[in-house]
Design goal:
122 residues; alpha+beta; four-stranded mixed beta sheet; 4 strands; globular
Length: 122
């Protein structure tokens, strides 16, 4: 009988491999993205001290009020715009993109492209 690992375990292993390659610094923090079945979360993190500098999610009232659904590509694009604007306001222009083990397409890609359009470089 063939046994397969669950998708969440496979994603977690991918994320650990990605995290071994890079980490966020004060000059170039890490933009970490997580998506669940219902919501998306984005954080800009300085890994040298372990601080979250900027965060946004579809759970926040001001973000949720603008969205029809919180788990589609349009919501991801809006969240990317919000996190990009917050980062630029905080003085952060360049980041390292951490896709969290998720495949770079669909919601993750929409969030990344919207963050780039909002002023982040990665």
């Amino acid at each position: 009988m063939v046994k397969k690992e669950s998708r969440s375990k496979i994603r977690a292993k991918k994320h650990l491999r990605i995290r071994n390659r890079f980490s966020g610094t004060a000059e170039r923090p890490r933009l970490a993205v997580f998506r669940s079945n219902n919501h998306m979360y984005a954080q800009i993190i300085d890994d040298t001290v372990g601080n979250t500098l900027v965060s946004a999610s579809t759970l926040q009232k001001d973000v949720k009020a603008e969205l029809e659904k919180t788990n589609d590509v349009a919501a991801a694009a809006y969240l990317g715009k919000v996190i990009g604007e917050k980062a630029v306001a905080a003085g952060i222009t360049t980041v390292v993109f951490d896709r969290g083990g998720f495949v770079y397409q669909g919601k993750i890609q929409a969030l990344a492209e919207a963050a780039r359009e909002a002023g982040l470089e990665f």
